[in-house]
Amino acid sequence: KLIDxxxxxxxxxxxxxxxxxxxxxxxxxxxxxxxxxxxxRIGVSKADSWIEYTILEDCMREVLNESAERRxxxxxxxxxxxxxxxxxxxxxxFAPNHPQKPELGKRVVPLTRExxxxxxxxxxxxSKGYFRLFPDNMVRLRYGYVVKCTGFEKDADGNVVTVHCxxxxxxxxxxxxxxxxxxxxxxxxxxxxxxYAAEVRLYDRLFKEAHPGAGDRDYLxxxxxxxxxxxxxxxxxxxxxxxxxxxxxxxxxxxxVADRKDSVAGKxxxxxxxxxxxxxxx
Length: 282
Description:
By secondary structure, this protein is of the alpha+beta class.
């Protein structure tokens, strides 16, 4: 079946990150340590058995959580404008490279008047329990300031394209005034002036069923149509220097690796290795 998938172009080749091949696993960002943990966890048996794919994914999460440095990426961007922030100003915010490894230090994340934020971090009419941006609500820009939403703009189709806010100058993270205003929401962002627009491939399971082709079905009918989505994301500027096979946790999203095949110097392409949580749990 693997030969059929490759020869009939259902996948891009033997190193397609969705395939259960060593070449595919390397491009996906699966690590030797993750496979070692997987074999330790499932043990050895003489009997044939089905092993849940979630066990492999959990092993990769566990290993990457320990080893991968953190970076900021906005995968579905909309513009956030801080109206009372000086247009020509840029200042440094400081983000830890790994929250459990202070010895890895911090990196500079530039903050400017215009930022990219996730589309899901704003709602015109908030649902119950929604604590992120909506009109008149306040949130903290992670590693930055507390901001209050003052309005938004829509395009001709009614889609929100720009969110407006004002920042509270005395609330910057790491300063004495950081806790002067209590907010429930905390969102990530990247500076629009400094962001690196990159190709990001969101890989998922190749098949939508645990047992493709079970019964009398054609296994090709069980191919997951959403097993890969290619998007253009806005990434923090440090990621522009990523080398092939460099792995990171994109905060709030999951673990990603710079593609071994398609990344070039100064223009890495990222593949999603695994999400932060199991999205396939029922």
